[in-house]
Amino acid sequence: MLNNKTILITGGTGSFGKSFTKMILKKYSPKKVIIFSRDEFKQDLFKKEISIEMPEKLSKLRFFIGDVRDKNRLYRAFDGVDYVVHAAAMKQVPACEYNPFEAIMTNINGAQNVVDAAIDRKVKKVVALSTDKAVNPINLYGGTKLVSDKLFISANAYAADKGTIFSVVRYGNVAGSRGSVIPFFKDLIEKGVDELPITDFNMTRFWISLEEGIDLVLKALEESKGGETYISKIPSFKITDLAEAMLPGCKLKHVGIREGEKLHEVMVTKDDSRTTYEYEKHYIIYPHFDWWNKESYFTEGGKPIENGFEYNSGNNAEWLSIEDLRNEMEKLGIYKLEK
Q: Which domains, from first to last, does the chain contain?
């Protein structure tokens, strides 16, 4: 699929961008991979990383300094590009709350710039990364990502006969990612605490690895026909179980839910259930627009989910136990319990 193709990743020096780049360099033989981001230092670090880990692939990479806010720069970067994965965003909830105009310019205006540049440069496919926080948003970050998702879905109508296909991939916090609960707990444990703070004893989250997120993006690149929102079928876990998995017998301190934080991660709402289909390892939410029709845009193999069904981390059918969590963290190399 990606052999002899040119792929561009916005936000290409982030956790996802770096891992995605390494995976496609290992699995495929692309013509070139363009790392589009605004931080020259991170680009230099990533270039050195690739030169050590896979020096034979370094000639495939192009490092392009730019910001998704700059439409002209995107037009230049997208010239000759076959596939775009849009991962650039302001993601920190407090930063977005305190800097709302900046979040809007990056997450919303930037998304529109990506859409315009992709259509006009005749990019074949664009996959945009979303978040559970875009579902029934209660903070500005989630609100901007909801608008971003809508822009990418509706872009299929604007593309018309230009041929560019847009889809969205949605998942929550990746296990062990920066700013998530595992590195937070790990830091406290390394400082010798015997008590871990819990925002709410009933809180649950989905468990997804970076590799699983990348696999879903590759699936969207391979089979999307336009307008789909892809969501992985993944297990849930309780935050209290995670604390026990990382620090057995620890005391738990209730500190209260933070502003903009949800009790459970929601991926598919009851209202979306009417246009959601279940596949073996994922769900697809299809759009409800006049331009969308099942004959042209539907991916075979799915079955409609029950009307009123909501897919969230609290009502999931699959759960990780305390021992499962320990095994998963050790397997991913993000935390190992000292025996």
A: 6-174+206-234+266-312 (3.40.50.720)
